[in-house]
Fold this protein.
Amino acid sequence: MPKTILVSNRLPIRINSEGIPERTTGGLASALEAAETKGPKLWVGWTGGPEEEIDDRAALTTQLRSLDIEPVFLSQAEVDGFYEGYSNSTLWPILHGMLERTQFNQESERLYRQANEKFAEAIVAIAEDDDIVWIHDYHLFFLPAMLRKKMPGLRIGFFLHTPFPSSDILRTLPAKRELLLGLLGADLIGFHTYNNLRHFRSSLLRVLGIETEHDSLYHLGRKHQLGVFPIGHNRKGFHEAMATDTFFAAQTELAENLGERKLVLNVERLDYTKGVPQKLDAIRHFLESNPDQRDKIMFLIIAVPSRQNVEEYADLTEQVQREVGAINGDFGTVKNVPVHFLHRGFPPEELAAFYSLADVCLVTPLIDGMNLVAKEFIDCKKKTPLTRPGVLILSEFAGAAAEMSHAYLVNPYAIQEVSEALTECLALSAEEMWSRTEAMQNHLAKNDAGIWANRFLTFFDDPASSSGPTRGLARVERSLKESQLCGKRLSLFLDYDGTLREFTKRPQDAVPDAGLLPLLHRLREKADLSIVSGRPKEFLEQHFGGQGFNLVAEHGYRWSRVDHPSWALTNPHVDVSWKELILPQLEQIADLTPGSHIEEKQSALVWHYRSADPEFGLWQARRLLVELTELSASLPVSVHHGKMIVEVASQQVNKGRAMQALIHSLGSEVALAAGDDQTDESMFSSEPSIEQFHTIHIGDSNTRASHVTTFDGFRTFLENLADSLHS
């Protein structure tokens, strides 16, 4: 039965007092343990320290494997470069849109790649085809593609727990292409919010030139699903914590200490993305504006230490502690110290006690992938004797803002706005607070961490979820060879751009490369060969004329056959009067889209936007498609969106009809058609009355072809075919 292999940077373990590793719960570990899988679950991850500090690596490995954990060991240099360096000093600030904090270092990038390779090796050692591998977070961006190369049969998911930046920010990263291509090793790529998904799609378009559907894309013949999966909190864990004696003792003690004072709570990891200095500015503004409240409120900031060995974080800690002291010095009284700063973590039982008694939870990160504190706070509000009603003030830049509809949303940079929200929230009635809380609790109950994990993994229950490229080209080659040996007449129908020649920025530069003509001549010696292209006859005649090839130009409008080399219309009765109506529409869009142009063919009009801004060009193309579809409803034309083009072509002309006519005139018994875009689908959907008909699609889109490959893969296939066929 297939396994589910969970992969994260850090393992869900702790070392107990006897030096023995134990499984931990909470956070991601609890969510993934709650996931329902048909087969066993294994973890793969870094042990958390440099391997030089491990006394007995073999013994630790044995102990961890007994816990269903496969460890990854990193050297001190790899820890420094992979974790402290590239992950936390390069990727973390870029993902959060903070370029001014980003450090670029080639050695760190190399070590990041090296560490990802170690993760891949550890997974391959325990994985089998059809296993599910679920990879988590930004430490492992390169891993999906590494795994796909080593084990194509794996089902791979990736989930990003941070924000994904805009394409303008991502493009500053030297390894941006490798990062995106690394993620495209996964069958399913998940994000917390649609905004992050939108940025990812934009980056694919602007960096790699890959157009996507709203929830999927095709790349190298494989379909990749994109999804939005907002993670929930560990609801079960907090409910269990609230049933313990520790919780009741902590709640009672805190309630006594508070007395009549109101509690404004903040729980954060001390990171520059969390906006703690800005929060302190808002608290200062509130205390200045509300002197009568100074003895009536306790601000409690729980700041969990983070990356203390990084100088930037040490500076942040010092800055926060200094400002807390300044606020208390300016506004403290004999009765009350307004701000209590606790620089340490707390167990769930004590956190739940804090949440239960907080009148306001102030969650104001500058940017956050999700922020589970907001969800934990709301879920810990139960109508018990000591529990107080409370209200959530939440940053509009936290991922949780999309779900927490009854929170007070604020801009964390707007100090006065946060201060005024505090004033307003503290004045709310208990009924209003409970009403807001209860409105969000029902949603949280249906979307906790375990349910989130199950939603993600359910994708892999569909047998079609892992739609990898067809790996049957070797069988096609054998079949064609066997048919030819039996005396069957073999015909090849090959598109040009994107099939025999890679795309270039300027179409006029896409002339045959040095190896193409010799290859085509080798094939022509052994089979009928037809080049079926959208190019004009002048281009085909210049590069392929008089060399024994059948040439079909302008998607089937004209042809030049070996037995009738003069160019002629494939259908002399084609009506192209519709061009007078369509051309003004294309001219208008070309004028409005810098970098685009119109190509006029005898039976088609094509708007090209390959040199335009990719996102703007795609947006204009989709607008144009709607307009042209309405305009041409009663015209004998077809409208299609190809690779950086929108084409309007006569319905009386297509590649499929030209191919069918050639099959008939050649007396073909076995045929192969290959192409890369929508214009080639008319060949793929043809059903010629011959013994065998093979179809191959080159590239990254949905297709009716029976086989899919890459440009390089198809060139290799043709080379092998030329070698295996007999003259």
